[in-house]
Amino acid sequence: MRLPDGPQTPPFLQLLHWISNPLGFLESCSQRYGDPFSAHLGPLDPIIFISDPGAIREIFTTDSEQFDAGKGNGILQPLLGDHSLILLDGDRHQRQRRLLMPPFHGDRMRTYSQLICQITEQVTSQWQIGKPFSARTSMQEITLRVILQAVFGLHEGQRYEQLRQLMSTMLNSVSSPLSSSLLFFRALQRDFGAWSPWGRFLRQRHQVDQLIYEEIQERRQQLDLSRTDILSLLMSAQDEAGQPMNDVELRDELMTLLIAGHETTASALTWALYWVHQLPDVQAKLRAELDQSGYDPQNPAALSATARLPYLSAVCQETLRIYPVAMLSLPRIAKSPLQLMGYEFSPGTPIVACIYLTHHRQDLYPQPDQFRPERFLERQFSAYEYLPFGGGVRRCIGLALAQMEMKLVLATILSRYELALVGKRPVRPVRRGVTLAPRSGNWLVATQQRPQQAAVSV
Predict the structure, then answer these.
(1) What pLDDT shows up at residue 454?
(2) Which residues of 180-195 are buried (b: 16+ CB within 10 A; e: fewer)?
(3) Which DSSP category does 163 fall into?
(4) 11-449 — its CATH code?
């Protein structure tokens, strides 16, 4: 098998480069070796990176039996568990996906629209005019509360508070480029007690697990068919054989939804706030559209109309294009010889669609480093040219909730506050765990409060 060209430095150094400066790694490889290129980043070597839409289409539309995808995500096992949809393949993956999909149908997502606005108002009401704050911290608090209330059905109480605090602490413990090395290097996954990095993570995870299992047991003992939260819907779901998910499967899927649906949306929202306030023209157009739209957080029909606003949608799309939270699609591992882009890959070869490089192709997105929402109003991009949620049978099941949440949180904030960036230092992307996020810091400030909408009742 002749591999595409790629860096010849030792695999350990390639992995360190990928961990410490992921975009620099991708851009340097793309400029030097072209598309596709290969890289050695761990035990699943070599990994083939592609960004050509035609090749991505071929990968995403090929019979799923041609690839294993779950086993290429072993890095996430400590966070998500063995039964997470992301780590499954074959029939088990198809079963879990069928059970998980109905609660994430677009129509059902609209029932959470007022909840999203209410939580946004609650969190942002803590901002003080003239005092810089961390946009990331606020967005993380909003998205975590949305997940706990929409997915778990937890609105208050001791378990809600414990989960809220523990999830933030646990994720922060493996989020920086340095601490995320715990996920990439198995040799570092050693429990030397509560003061060791991995030991601390394991104890936090155990506490989260206890809370989740307690919640599942209480729900089983006090079954309430009138509840509309996603946990209740998952507990009542049955596969084709009439079997529901067991407690461990429920725990792993809940952790998947908590982590994938909370961290990623928080990063995307933080980027959206940055770009809107970095570019006065974008802010002016977006505010004008929102002011004319009749945005009303108490009216579900008005919120549905808000979520369909063209420029608001384009701002969110461009946010997810320029710095996609997931830089890569989930790896596809060939199960038989595969011909692609003039190469023949042997079984066991992992192939990833590089979302970041695809989103920065000059032939698709002229001036790709420029934030320009208008490009999404001027043309429609295919699912192989624009893929912030991955694609094929591995496309993110929570995309409807994530997109709606982005739009409504942004609309609620801009309807309530005038904001400004603190200083002129640009906000740069950094690694956060396995994702891409804006750098932290208090770089946003509320300068004025707009007339408040009436309180939302849910």
Answers:
(1) 46
(2) bbbbeeeeeeeeeeee
(3) H
(4) 1.10.630.10
